[in-house]
Target: Undecaprenyl-diphosphatase
Amino acid sequence: MDMNTLVAAILGLVEGLTEFIPVSSTGHLLLLGHFLGFDSPGRTFEVVIQLGAVLAILTVYAAKLWQVASTMHTDPASARFVASVLLAFFPAAVIGVLAHDIIKTILFETPVLIATMLILGGLVLLVVDRIAPAPLHEDAMQLPFRKALSIGLIQCLAMIPGVSRSGATIVGARLMGVGKRASAEFSFFLSMPTMAGAFTYDLWKSRHILDFSALTDIAVGFLLAFLSAVLVVRWTLDFVSRHGFAIFGWWRIIVGTAALILLSLGF
Model:
């Protein structure tokens, strides 16, 4: 395995391990890529390995998704759940299209901003884990439309790299009285259209500059992102139900602080 493939394997593993927990997979990938000197023409690598994480969540929830899809025309609860997820997805779809170029060309190229947002997001997680109100909703499939839309609006903060899509949605849900497990699970459900939409739009916008010359590296990163994401999704719900989100807050603070120190030293 040459050095580029090794770095691709590390980045794929990190993508899968961090995509569905509130630590910002994008922030981790961009900072690691910066410090490891990894350059992906047209961001082809980052775009494609994200699909590995999308397929992982679809695989884990395949049975539930099929049940919802096959009953939504007869079961009001299934139809209502689909509507709540699409409603939550709508703000990100609109803002993502309007702000795509700014996000990709400016925010994604600012390591200091990413590290700072990791730290601030970690502090928010620690505070919310302590002050969140008693849960009013313990079923991710039965959230009121108003709260689903509010969570979707809060998710838009994650367009700033380092904020974390899952972190924003979980914090928003917890502050609105959604239980720990239900917050994480709704974040998983919302990730499906959000990530699939972002992947498709990124692919389309970058179609003229995509570079698939390093297919081995891309394949390795994709596979490791898929496998590690499957493990994380299966593990996360039980973990946060018992322990909450504080450990992720501390991790963000440590990683962000380390990154700022390295950047200040000229790395």
Q: What stands out?
A: The chain has eleven helices and no strands. Residues 76-105 form the longest helix (30 residues). The mean pLDDT is 87. The radius of gyration is 18 Å.
